[in-house]
Amino acid sequence: MAVRVDVEFGAKDAFKAVKRGDLIVVVDVLRCTSSIVSALANGAKAVIPTETLKEAYRLSEQRPDFLLAGERKGHKLRGFDLGNSPLEFVQEAVEGKTVIMTTTSGTHALVRCRRAEHVLVGAFLNAAAVAKKAAEIAQKEKVNVSFVLAGEEDLFSLEDFLCAGAIASEFPIEGVDFSDEALAAVLGFERVKGALSEYVGKSRHAKHLFELGFGRDVEFSCMLNRFEIVPVYVDGKVTLIR
Amino acid sequence: MAVRVDVEFGAKDAFKAVKRGDLIVVVDVLRCTSSIVSALANGAKAVIPTETLKEAYRLSEQRPDFLLAGERKGHKLRGFDLGNSPLEFVQEAVEGKTVIMTTTSGTHALVRCRRAEHVLVGAFLNAAAVAKKAAEIAQKEKVNVSFVLAGEEDLFSLEDFLCAGAIASEFPIEGVDFSDEALAAVLGFERVKGALSEYVGKSRHAKHLFELGFGRDVEFSCMLNRFEIVPVYVDGKVTLIR
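Structure tokens for the assembled complex are given below, as produced in the milestone run.
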């Protein structure tokens, strides 16, 4: 049977994908999932996403050995070790460490998917690896695949749409059944794949990040298939898939 | 000032575009807006969209000289003169006539936009003409533009998304400010414009129409810029713009 590939354009609709019993790929290219991929690629042991700041501070008090990372309104927070720039999560900073992370949208979206059986973390940085793994699990366990685009709660994000297209276009299985949303995303990605950072740069959120001085994050987050890793969210933690 | 171009992916969000005070382009390629464009291009005097069947029957009783057209579940209805196939609205059938029309999604979407100052009817068939007129009004009256995709109430439709992209990509004004949704639509259209009916044919709704035997409607509705007309919805009627 063909694997169905669908897309929820906003994190508020994550529950639909959970309800369908789909394998979920959470995407928040600017910048949460790009940061998580960077952190794990550079040797972090785990990333623990939290929805609220309060929860992040509380957990950090209990575990002072954990790093505290994230943002509100794009900026690093008081008492935090790291912000939400994928370029901060270098080996020197994160190797062997567990990172508590709270961001405006991406960590919310992850937590909203916590009841799903399979939740992968996708970005341009690991698009092909995530596609391969998602297709493998979907075939083996006979589940469908949904992307949950987390850019902003209630809003469509061009960069996440293009990233879902990047991942979906790498699906190696025959007979994939794309929803209208998934097909639109694949077409969009195919149109811009030769100039990814140029087009992602035209998105609302990228423009906002340019204003805040985070232009290099946009550039870095558009590096297609830089890492061959697949982060998975299980029991409240994101780790590399076994 | 740049004209902002936005897209509401579902008819249920038409109210947002109305609230913003935007010029609205309603798009329901398969098949309502393609049929309206065909009807007016072939000499119909006006099309009166109604939300309910009851309203359509009532109006038809009052005005037996009007034609009654539309569908439910894709099929023409008992006592109706015409269905919802753009190929039915030929000159012999509609010239000089007023057409009462009720469809599952498209006429709903139009009625939902009735409080907007400017409501144009868009399809692939008249994409360039609508773009030119929308841009002209937007510049003159200093309003922004929103596409309302009417394919299905609550669902994203690939064909309407691509059509919004077709129209938006023809906008002749400098300094158009595309929302993420509008930019995604333009990119999708640019990717498929050489093979429009092939890609529209992959959409959920086209597949449904193929099953019902309406394949020729899909083919016809994909004829880009076949007509140079702009239907406008004012005071409950769609007519050619003066």
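The mean pLDDT of chain B is 96. The two ends of chain B are 26 Å apart (CA to CA). Further analysis is deferred to the final report.
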